[in-house]
Specification:
Length: 429
Amino acid sequence: MDKIRIRGGKPLDGTIEIGGAKNAALPLMVCGLLTDEPLTLTNIPSTLMDIRTLGELLTQHGSEVVVKGEGAGRAMTITTKNITSTTAPYDLVRKMRASILVLGPLVAREHEARVSLPGGCAIGSRPVDLHLDGLAALGAEIELTDGYVVARAPGGLKGAEVVFPKVSVGATEHLMMAAALAKGTTTLINAAREPEVVDLAVCLNAMGAEITGAGTDRIVIVGKDRLHGATHEVVPDRIEIGTYMMAVGIAGGRVFLPRARIDLLKAAVKSMREAGIAFTERDGGVEVTAPKGGLKGVDVVTEPFPGFPTDLQAQFMAMMTVCNGASMVTETIFENRFMHVPELGRMGANITVHGSSALVRGVPRLTGAPVMATDLRASVSLVLAGLAAQGETIVNRVYHLDRGYERLEAKLSACGADIERLKESMAAE
Ligand code: EPZ
């Protein structure tokens, strides 16, 4: 398995290109099942493992998935003239949990589907009860057998009012897509408000859907008999933007992020500003500058959008390990999202966990060490810590990183970081 080696202590200086949002691209790809016409997605981070895995899954359902072009000009076209299989097998679903999103569109279009239940993952049990209850509300008959969800709607799905007992990004996206082809109108109450939900509604409406209220907690979908093809540009990745902003915060320096948009992560930018990081919006992007004399300790609590995003919690905590003062980091979305804490501790961080809160007491500096990644965002928080640590940090199991960050080490080394990927053979030495 590849490793990443970082020799810390170098400030960042340069430009980092931001890609399309992984967590928008995944549901957007599933929209390709909702029409027999081509759906083209531009600005798609198509080299990410999660995107490739979902492409494999769509292909075995009967989609033709073609990626053309390079960099920002890259486009993925998904054409599903016919659904050739309504089964999503375990060996693909277990690799990428968001695969569960194909269930509703398959039932909407083919009136039946058999999708493996996604397992849990490192950050929590990740149940899908809100997805299944929502589809049942739209008239699907749901059965759980042999680890698979079997769903049927012989006469098709019917519009309904769905009240989510808790905010769920995936369940909101799932029901929006299923309801787009249901008979009648669906209202989602207590819906997720994330920018990726809004981006999905924009794409569905471009395909002929009739969705209003995306971005609020009440979304109305007027079902249509069919949807047509479209071309849609994937929204920039707000978590990638926030990750590189925090890389500047911990390593020091100044970086320009073209096409970055502060409105996608206002709560996180507010906390970073309080810590002393400066932001200048210019030339269609954002310039980020770290404070002289280090960061100030700031408390954060993760919440559904527009609150502080859980996907930036580990990165913010890494940044706070070397702050002047202390920071209380509270995780309210997932039950087990502090796996980066013991690894940061091995680098000299002073962090005490009490339930869902972690008290981070700033230390003068971290020291490099071999550390282990356990999930996508925990792994990138260790890279950030390595940028500031004295000496050499080796981050193991970087396949987690490859699920969510394109060319991470190339982007950081282009800004002066001493960071290198050690290929399997090199890593073994
Ligand atoms: C999406 O996951 C993101 N993934 C996650 O990003 C992100 O952390 C999460 O939203 C929260 O913002 C994608 O978009 C592919 P949820 P999702 O449903 O949709 C519970 C990353 O690092 N829940 O909003 O699965 C759930 O256990 C990933 O890029 C139920 O109880 O998240 C969690 O505690 C990690 N029942 C809470 O709700 C359900 O049916 C929020 O989950 C569904 C969720």
